[in-house]
Amino acid sequence: MPAFQDTHRGVRQLEPIDTAVTVWIVDYDLPEGNKRRGFYRRIQNWLKEHRGEEKAAWSTYSVVITTDREFADLVYDTAVTLGRAHMYQAHPIK
User: Fold this and answer.
1) Which residue of 10, 19, 27, 71 has the fewest C-beta atoms within 10 A of its own C-beta?
2) What is the pLDDT of residues 18-31, one digit of tens each?
3) DSSP codes joined into one string, 14-47
């Protein structure tokens, strides 16, 4: 069953996720300004270095959905030092 991502421009379909795979969800709330820009730069650099662009689904609501635990940890650890963050472990059921 495909996963979906809700965005301001509507809902777009993501790649199907195997129901046996663990999914990591990180939501975060960051302050405006340089800290927020630094956060996104760090994430973009990590994705470029690890070629993980296809491993993460970004929403306009400050949420990352990924099957890559290392990436989820990076997003959470970086976000929590700048603002608030939560990380969830999920298993698709359908």
Assistant:
1) 10
2) 667 888 999 999 98
3) EEE--TTS-EEEEEEE--SSHHHHHHHHHHHHHH
